[in-house]
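Recall the central idea of this unit: under ordinary conditions, the amino acid sequence of a chain determines the structure it adopts. In this exercise we apply that idea directly, starting from the sequence alone.
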Amino acid sequence: MKINALIDIVLPPRCPLSGECVDSPGMLSPSVWKKLSFISDPVCSACGVPFDFTIDAQGMLCAACLTDRPPYDHARSALVYEDTSRDLILGFKHGDQTQNVHAFVPWLKMAGAPFWAQADILIPVPLHWTRLLRRRYNQSALMTQALGKDMNIPVHLSALARQRATPTQGHLKAKDRARNVRAAFIVRPQFQEYIKGKNIVLIDDVYTTGSTVKECAQALRAAGAGQVNVLTLARVIKPQTLDV
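Accordingly, the structure predicted from this sequence is:
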């Protein structure tokens, strides 16, 4: 009997939220699964925010993107950030529940489906080294590694660097978030030639106002990247309107 199978008999894997037994580490029980809200079309062509009405929205932009187009090409997210997804992500991010990444990969693959045909490199949003030292792992890097392995797409965990330690974004308003991370990211010099002309998928855990991924996208653009698409596990949803 393999050692992993023996461990599962002695200590069966459990859902990280409900504690119910599941088939493999990181998987969710049916009671938790049904509480998740997955994002599906129609969505804004640019930022990926879902429209709250049914239309043929291919190529359509939300009001925010019509007013101020993001510096990335497209963004997509798997889940709405709400009570259940928040608990799942916070456990992964701060609670050492790194096994959750096994559940996240299929969701990220599905949400990022428009990107894969042209994706050259996967890059995570970086942590400043001081925060990485305290947390011991970068949750976005773990997702990027797992997704890259599954999709057979090159991963560069160190291409982007956070050059200054910014305060946490948690309770900041949108304008303060943007100010907080302004010019906080750079492409490391040894990666600049490699980045040029490449189509990048930038990966993070949660899209709130987009301030962080926008700054990362600008840094990648400045280094000569081709397309920059953003993929997050979840995003905060606020009421949106469609201008036609």
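The radius of gyration is 18 Å.
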